[in-house]
Amino acid sequence: MSKLADPGCPPDPSFIEALLDAMVACAEKCMSQQASRGNVTARFGTCDLSGLFTNRNGAGAGCDTIGTVLSFAPDDGSQRIDILHVACHPTVLHGENHLLSTDYVGAPREKCEALRGSQAVVLVGDAGDSSTRFTRRGEGFDGVERIGGEIARRFAAATLQPAPIALNGIQDVPVHLDYVPAEDEALLSAQRTLTNLLKEPAAAKTSGIAARADDLRQMLGMVEAKLAIPRIRLDVSVTLADLGCVRLTLVPSEVVFSFGEQLRDASPVPVLVCGYVDGYLGYVVDQTEYGRFFESYITVFYGFSQGRCG
Question: What is the maximum span of the chain, computed from C-alpha positions, in angstroms?
């Protein structure tokens, strides 16, 4: 859960309490079932999810459209578990829909039992700049079923191979941030640039910043909100889990595709980038993309491109 909740929309304490109770109950159930089961066979596979989502900053920009599945089948024949990794924002539904929903994530979970005989857990990958903006047909629950159902069908058709899963180690990588926003020239420059672009809409098209007028206003609002903070101190960590044939990178933020790609390219085995884990701190944008898109501004990591975040 995020410690950076919108101050204008505080969370409902009863909802938070119910959520925590559900998490504890789920953990207790998993531990009790683990104790009663014997050996488990792990399998690994991928499927092509192209055409279902793209980079939302441009249909031709980069996007991880490889769906990955880790399947665990108990030798006693009891319920199989499939972990599905998808790098797409769960935002098929329109932002004006205020109903509590699992969006497209719920459909694969519901349909996998019928299609594969398994219970599914969905991990959201480096989805910081990917969505169904250019692929959805409608922004209602029909669209959710179409996108989510097709994701489930493609995962169900994936060919799985035995996978030597072994916990070889877990490492926490600390991220320390301590700076005064009003002294950050990158942030001050962004304020000037965004202000000028809103005054001259024609210049926005040639600025290199890929954003609509509404996005520019929201970006400027976020910049000015950060400038109003006297000092930002933050200590968090990214968790790396080495499972042998695959590695998990657990990040308390939304990771954009170009950063996720760097993490995958640096590993000799497949890397599953998992966002929204252990908190929420906005977007994490690598230096090559910093400042160009909406995601660079909706974050506390304004010092990232300047090397202030270790």
Answer: 67
Of how many residues is the chain composed? 310
DSSP letter at 278? S
How far is Cα 33 from Cα 244, in angstroms, rounded to an integer?
A: 24
DSSP sequence for 109-135: HHHHHHHHSEEEEEEE-S-TTEESTTT
C-alpha 166/C-alpha 4 separation (Å) is 35
- The reported pLDDT for the residue numbered 178 is 85
pLDDT of amino acid 304: 40
Q: Give CA angle at 29 (27, 31), nearest 5°.
A: 70
CA–CA distance, 63 with 76 (Å, rounded to integer): 39
String of DSSP letters for 59-116: TTS----EEEEEEEEETT---EEEEEEE-S-S--S-TT--S---GGGHHHHHHHHHHH
Q: Is 67 exposed, middle or buried (0-12, 13-18, 19+ CB in 10 A)?
A: buried
pTM, 2 dp: 0.84
Query: Using CA atoms, how far apart are residues 54 and 91, in angstroms rounded to an integer?
Result: 12
Pairwise CA distance, residues 284 & 119, whole Å: 31
CA distance 68 to 90: 17
Q: How far apart are CA 203 and CA 206, in angstroms?
A: 5
Ramachandran sector of residue 96 (left: φ over 0; alpha: ψ -120 to 50; beta: rest): alpha
Task: Please check whether residue 58 is in contact with residue 133, taking contact to mean a CB–CB distance below 8 angstroms.
Answer: no
List the single range of 25-29, 151-155, 159-163, 213-217 with lowest mean pLDDT.
Answer: 213-217
The residue among 154, 53, 162, 159 whose CA lies nearest residue 112 is 154
Question: What CA–CA distance (Å, rounded) separates 158 from 57?
Answer: 29
CA–CA gap between residue 257 and residue 265 (Å, rounded): 12
Contact 144, 104 (CB under 8 A): yes
